[in-house]
Amino acid sequence: MSGKHDHKPFEGHMHDFEAHIRAVEEDLEYYRAKRFEPRIFYLIRRGVVTFYDLLKARVALKRADQFFKLKKPQGKNIEARVRYLEEWLDEYVKGIALVSARAVEAMDMVTEDNRKERGDYDDFFKFQKKQHHGTLEERMANLEQDLRDYQELLEVLVQALIKGGWSTREELKQRW
Fold first, then answer.
1. Which of 42, 103, 160, 175 is the most exposed place for a label (fewest CB within 10 A)?
2. Chain segment 124-150, per-residue pLDDT in tens
3. Does 88 fall in a domain?
């Protein structure tokens, strides 16, 4: 739709911030608990990476070497922050897909393996989803911190896979 708008960028389109934040919270926890963390445990159980590989990759990680380059937020109003969280979540999910796909031979994980690993058949193995509480502002701040933490773990896994020779930066960039 073209023409003049009576609002500034990042103002006026989004009306139910609560619904948008709730959707980000739910999607973030779904992808963390049902896709990403079970993938890490799957790789650890199969000897692709170890906890020690992840710790070493974190210690060695320098900003210049990071695979994922996050965009900066545009604007500080509530709509800009919500949109930024949504876009960050999209990048996080895309990153999970990168390490979940057949990027390396050892990572070939069929759906049934993933269901077992994430506890679909045995509650003992189920990853708990984080509960979100507080004001909208507090929840947005918590989401920003969660995304920073979860994205950091994703980055560390990518670095450990590269260091372990399971994939190269170039191969991952091609898939990205």
1. 175
2. 777 778 888 899 999 999 999 999 999
3. yes
The alpha carbon torsion through 119, 123, 128, 133 (nearest 10 deg) reads: 140
Question: What is the number of domains present in the chain?
Answer: 1
Of 117, 107, 105, which Cα lies nearest the Cα of 35? 117
Q: What phi and psi values does residue 118 have, to the nearest 5 degrees?
A: -90, 0
What DSSP element (H or E) covers 94? helix 78-100
For residue 4, being part of any structural domain is answered with: no
| C-alpha span between 154 and 96 (Å, rounded) | 7
Q: Give, in order, the Cα–Cα distances in Å from 163 to each of 49, 54, 112, 117, 149.
A: 10, 10, 28, 25, 21
Res. 2 pLDDT band, cuts 50 70 90: very low
Q: Tell me whether residue 12 is in a domain.
A: no
The count of C-alpha atoms lying within 13 angstroms of the C-alpha of 136, restricted to the half-sphere facing its C-beta, is: 13
Q: DSSP alpha helices (H): ranges in 127-168?
A: 136-163
Give CA–CA dist 28/140, Å, rounded.
12
Q: Is the pTM of this model over 0.70?
A: yes
